[in-house]
Amino acid sequence: MVTRKNPIFDTATTLGKIFGFLGVSAICGVLVAGLLVPAAAVSGSAASGSIEFFDTLPAELQVDPPSQSTRILAADGSLIANLYEENRTKVALDQISPFMKEAIIAVEDSRFYDHGGVDTTGILRAMVSTARGNKQGASTITQQYVNNVLNANLAAEGNTDDIKLNGVNKGVGDKLREMKLAIALEKKFSKEQILEGYLNIVFFNRDAYGIEAASKFFFSNTAKDLTLPQAALLAGLVNSPSAFDPITNPENAKERRDLVLGLMLNQGKITQVDHDAAVATPVEPKITQSRQGCAYASTAPYFCDYVLHLLLNNPAYGATPKEREQMVFRGGLTITTTLDVNAQNVAQAESDAAAGVNPDNWGASIVSVQPTTGKILNMAQNTSFLPTEGKFNQTQNFNVDKLDKDGNDLNGLGGFQPGSTMKPFTFAQWVNEGKSMNTNLNAATRKYPQNFPWKNTCPEPTVGWYDARIPGSFDLQNSDDGYYRNMTVLYGLQNSINTATFASAAQVDLCGIQKIVDAVGIHGGLPVGDDPNPPVKMTTLANLIGSTQTAPLTMASAFATFANDGKYCEPIAITSVTDQTGAQLPAQATSCRDAVKPEVARGVAYALQKVLDEGSGSLIKPRISTKTNFPVAAKTGTNDTNGSTWVVGFTTGVATAAWFGDPLGDQLRPGRNLTINGKRYEAIDGYMIAGPMFSKYMAQVAPAYGTNAFTAPPTNMVSGTPARTTPSTQATAPATAPATQPSTDPAPGNSDKKN
To answer: Where is the composition biased (Low complexity) (predicted)?
Structure first.
């Protein structure tokens, strides 16, 4: 038996629909009256009040460029990384498939070319459908574009709580405002401009804003090359990106796609044959997952992160950190950097190979600069920026300072003890004072007590002593007993003899060494007190042999001065920044200064070639030097615990710092009794691991930048008549000497002659 419905309820339902219809009609009448009829021509207080309200609404829409992805590029224009809050790449209308344009109009606004921003026919149709219980929207593409622009402007300002969404938190006043702005927009822009703006701003997926990003994400395609079924699917997705997501809801996505195809057929946009072929096409997305940030960089993630920090620290990109983030992550910038992709690839391969299988997480890094420009060519280390099983995971950059000069974070580790790579600066002061590098020294002197008569014209006092007669102190050490003897200054440097460095320092002005070190940009990589980049005080004796942590980039740039005839160039990473309109924004420019005399730079370069030919660097295998390939100058370095080992050197075209050691915690692990790449090391030294890393890298990269012969130093600097100098005085420690050394006294620093 069929159950009959109660006629009372049927009548009530019908009356409810009628009253609902009338109510909606009244609202619609007010809106239409406000939109289409001048206020003076409308009678009735309700209509008049609505028109007055409508007239108070803004009629201008600030259409700022939508948030776009920022691109960081290598020097050759290849992509390093994308940065964004909304993954969007703007494209012109002629770079969008005609299928996409027709599909979006068919499903979202079939009368797009007929109305003036608000479709009254659509409003009435939606009103009737809603009265019948089938809720239907009536927003035109122009209105949707207005809503997207308003929301994008709020997001850019950080006011995400004020964003209005259809059917969620949008009231009558919001709709009135949207309509009025849509009408004004149609008067200002062409239909093509509005359609282009809409397709570039609309949301498709949390990883895809705008049609180009959506095409790439869902189909690994460009907007220009979208096929008919692909375009129909994306057009259908706009209505509800979650409900019609082809990844999570493929059946819903196909149903919606086919609806769009049916509309296109009914509106005469496609043929029956095209329709049937598209409907028969399975929904098969080909996802290209968007990768945002330097962690997903195609190459050089640590260099990318360094560049990002430079931008976020630069007031030119915004007065506050929040403003700078908005500019960088939403501004659609194109950032061209100094990175040489080939040099980076070689550096990465060599640093990975040098560290090899490394369960104890020993670190390796290589960084290079171009001496004449300061351009950073590569920045590599043997770690994974993203957590990866079986890898040495590390987000901090081994090659740079912890903070920049203004105290802003650089995400750097802050450097390592440079050991004997600091010795060339004492040598530089020696020849700077007009002394011959062929002068004999008494390198047997091992005691430098508290009252030793150092020459120091700086206001900072000389700090530290080496004297085993004082409890807690010790005599200066070399690695081998056979080097406590007379030798030339040049021989002492090329063989990295600690006592020779001190013997030469005892005959020059320590303040002169300080001025050279400052001039070539050397500073500590860790903050001290309020100073983010404290000076390396050469009046503290331990710094003559490298006790203050210094970043590899700092050392590479300092040594580049000797390759550049005494001119120091600040390291730079960013050569050009343009916004999405193509306007130039502040970047970094080459900034060089006279740091040491040209003849001094030539003298140091001459001596450091000898290091590789005859001295501590001659053990590097494979070896590149004046005898084997092209001119290279370098200095090895090892700190007192063997936990930090270096080779820093240069050709005329490239200066490089290669480092291997302990990057963890307080960096106090001794580099002894290690097994690296299956080889056992009793104690690692600069020439052992950092050395081959340096030489293999330079052999592959340096020829592209020039490997000319170095200019010879003045003859009298090299071959002046050897003069036997007075041995350094070994003064007796005073009876009032403290029982222990003060905390400012140096550790033994570097005691290895081959470092």
So the answer is: 721-748
